[in-house]
Amino acid sequence: MYTIDASVHINALNPTETGSAESQAYLAKVYQQALPVYSPTLLWVEVAAALARVFDSSAQGIALAQVLRILPGHIWVPLDEELAGQASAIAAEYRMRGADAVYAAVASRYQTTLVTTDQQQINRLSPFLSVCLPADAPSPAS
User: Fold this and answer.
1) CA distances for 45 relative to 6, 66, 87, angstroms
2) Per residue in 107-127, pLDDT tens?
3) CB-based contacts of 128: which residues, under 8 Å, 6+ apart?
4) Banded model confidence at residue 78, pLDDT cuts 50, 70, 90
5) Does pTM top 0.90 for this prediction?
6) How far is CA 63 from the centre of its chain?
């Protein structure tokens, strides 16, 4: 089971970024096999915002975020008071940005591997969580 940070989705959609091919390949495996992916609903917001900036199109950002909502295997986790409290504690303890701590809290709650392209998440969260780059992610079971 996985929690996939927004950075992986954004990286996969931007072929000029380093690691884009690895992110694309990883996401293709996960979604083709409809593997369980625990994601905060925050993912929709992050993807819409980032892609609207990258493509200079709010419509394209919104459309791509909506595609995420219907991908097979997703279990959507709302940011409620309990998860916000857990994310706050992770953010403070591991000196994480707020959004990054939300993904970590989801991964911790559901005991998933956090897949990210963010080296800070990998460095700071490794003692606490299973966290890795898409290229280093455990192979999804067939």
Assistant:
1) 9, 10, 17
2) 999 999 999 999 999 999 999
3) 90, 94, 104, 108
4) very high
5) yes
6) 18
42-55 and 98-110 are packed helices; what angle lies between their axes, rounded to 10 degrees?
Answer: 140
**Helix, strand, or coil (residue 77):** strand
| Cβ(51)–Cβ(65) below 8 Å | yes
Q: Which of 47, 45, 41, 35 is nearest to 112 (CA)?
A: 35
Whose tokens are 């992770």? That residue is: 90
Domains of the chain: 2-136 (3.40.50.1010)
Residue 5 CB neighbours (<10 A): 28
Give the distance from CA 137 to its chain's centroid. 13
74, two tokens: 């997703």
124 vs 113: CA distance, rounded Å: 14
Residue 142 has pLDDT above 70, yes or no: no
Token representation of residue 132: 């890795």
